[in-house]
Design the sequence.
């Protein structure tokens, strides 16, 4: 800062820490190109800056900086050329702080200090004006922050496009920040012909992985023109790392080293990170691009890059090329060698590495109440591809003293509509409690509500009576493998149907508490207490058949997912 730069009177440095021309600087702590502040120069306890903070005319802050609780960033205080130090705490006019100057490790920022809304954080980090930082929150290198810092629950980009070359984002939030090539790798001044944004996302618990909101089997090839440069901007909005691998080409990682930007064929993209890389189209044909976590690749996180020339060759509109020549850069030849044998046009018109798979998942819950000679079974099966499945569902089938008390099964078409929700419809076969078994149509919705509340709501219609069966439960994790499930289930109907033992209004309520221990993923042991209460006409039906209108049961059992 030069001599006309002053800090406001409420931003003073401690009186016993003056900096004038008589003060010597440590040889490696110089203020201008060779002068930094010595590590013992501190601002007072109310005006401290955290370790690693850098100051320059644009006020850049290092990626390791922490912000104290309550600190706001707005247009209030500016740390630029019009700010001055207090009249008795001036720095010599020849002592300026350039972009490489660090304040010492003891310096912290006061919780009330405000910073200019235009202040930039190191590696491209930006903060909205007025945003408050929680106590102890760390700002990862380059990560963009907004007031919420929430990861999306759905993709924000749908479909692959090549945009005009008018956007650039610096590589941030990765381990590649300081990686530099030993030799020149590219001409950084070569124009970019198109930008390809790639958002990496997935439904983790459903094993569906996307690039730009769709799995590979729903995507068309990404068409590339030869002898062009395309800029790829990767953003990882999932909670897993994705090592993205390209065949037949190099990624020129754009991390600020220009012609010495490194060449990589695989980019490891961390959660929340943004990576920018250029690709020069020096090849021909079509090439596979995918996440190198292979189950991500198999379940949708992949694409095919297709040169426009292969389409022309397949149609007989162009002749195969046979070009091999070197470039000024090490290990970067131009190789355009097309197959001279007849091409399989089906692989050109519809290239796809992995079609949609058929998946199956079966949940079985078996238990017994030794005090009342009762046994229970819950079964749920989902069978089919990612979005469309057959659901078979039996909920709380029960035998008591050798006779069946409850038994029905849903045979539904199940359709995934978002990461956490699915709709379903089909038929239900109802056996007990009823005088005669019957079929009825049904619809439903199931999913996960806020606060991790599992929801399963089904509706049925029989002989003019609409019946609603709603169930809600939540698993609370106590230790790594010990959980407690609490749940509630209610059944009500719009009309009494005696033959089906359906009563008008509320029929039944059930309340459960289930501690369980996870022996391994997909296998747990449990003990479940359930209180069951019947109401209205349904209660009358139960009493007339010799059943109790309320029950307390304690069931011990095993849950299996396979």
Sequence:
């Amino acid at each position: 800062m030069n001599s006309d730069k002053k800090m406001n009177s409420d931003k003073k440095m401690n009186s016993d820490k003056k900096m004038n021309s008589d003060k010597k600087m440590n040889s490696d702590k110089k203020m201008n190109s060779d002068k930094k502040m010595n590590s013992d120069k501190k601002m007072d306890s109310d005006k401290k800056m955290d370790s690693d903070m850098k100051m320059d005319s644009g006020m850049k802050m290092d990626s390791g900086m922490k912000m104290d609780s309550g600190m706001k960033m707005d247009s209030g205080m500016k740390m630029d050329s019009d700010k001055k130090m207090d009249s008795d705490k001036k720095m010599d006019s020849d002592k300026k702080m350039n972009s490489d100057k660090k304040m010492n490790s003891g310096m912290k920022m006061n919780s009330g200090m405000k910073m200019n809304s235009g202040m930039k954080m190191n590696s491209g980090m930006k903060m909205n004006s007025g945003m408050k930082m929680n106590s102890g929150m760390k700002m990862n290198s380059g990560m963009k922050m907004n007031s919420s810092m929430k990861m999306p629950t759905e993709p924000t980009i749908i479909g692959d496009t090549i945009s005009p070359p008018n956007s650039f984002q610096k590589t941030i939030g990765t381990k590649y920040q300081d990686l530099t090539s030993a030799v020149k790798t590219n001409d950084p001044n070569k124009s970019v012909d198109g930008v390809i944004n790639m958002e990496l996302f997935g439904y983790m618990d459903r094993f569906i992985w996307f690039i730009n909101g769709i799995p590979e089997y729903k995507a068309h090839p990404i068409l590339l023109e030869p002898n062009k440069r395309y800029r790829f901007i990767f953003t990882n909005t999932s909670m897993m790392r994705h090592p993205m691998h390209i065949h037949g080409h190099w990624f020129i990682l754009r991390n600020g080293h220009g012609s010495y930007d490194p060449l990589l064929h695989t980019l490891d993209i961390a959660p929340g990170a943004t990576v920018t890389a250029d690709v020069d189209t020096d090849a021909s044909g079509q090439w596979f691009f995918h996440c190198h976590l292979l189950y991500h690749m198999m379940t949708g996180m992949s694409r095919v890059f297709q040169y426009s020339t292969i389409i022309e060759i397949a149609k007989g509109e162009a002749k195969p090329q046979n070009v091999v020549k070197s470039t000024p850069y090490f290990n970067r030849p131009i190789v355009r060698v097309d197959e001279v044998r007849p091409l399989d046009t089906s692989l050109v018109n519809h290239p796809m590495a992995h079609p949609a798979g058929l998946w199956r998942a079966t949940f079985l819950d078996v238990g017994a109440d030794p005090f009342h000679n009762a046994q229970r079974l819950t079964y749920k099966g989902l069978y089919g591809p990612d979005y469309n499945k057959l659901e078979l569902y039996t909920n709380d089938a029960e035998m008591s003293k050798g006779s069946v008390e409850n038994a029905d099964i849903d045979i539904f078409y199940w359709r995934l509509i978002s990461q956490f929700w699915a709709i379903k419809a089909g038929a239900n076969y109802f056996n007990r409690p009823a005088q005669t078994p019957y079929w009825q149509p049904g619809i439903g919705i199931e999913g996960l509500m806020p606060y991790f509340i599992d929801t399963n709501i089904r509706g049925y219609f029989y002989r003019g009576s609409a019946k609603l069966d709603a169930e809600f439960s939540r698993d609370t994790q106590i230790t790594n493998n010990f959980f407690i499930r609490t749940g509630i289930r209610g059944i009500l109907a719009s009309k009494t149907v005696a033959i089906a033992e359906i009563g008008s209004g509320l029929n039944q309520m059930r309340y459960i508490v289930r501690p369980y221990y996870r022996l391994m993923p997909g296998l747990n042991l449990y003990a479940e207490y359930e209180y069951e209460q019947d109401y209205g006409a349904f209660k009358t039906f139960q009493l007339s058949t010799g059943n109790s209108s309320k029950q307390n049961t304690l069931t011990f059992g095993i849950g299996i997912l396979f």
The chain has three domains: 1-131, 194-349, 359-561. The first strand starts at residue 60 and ends at 61.
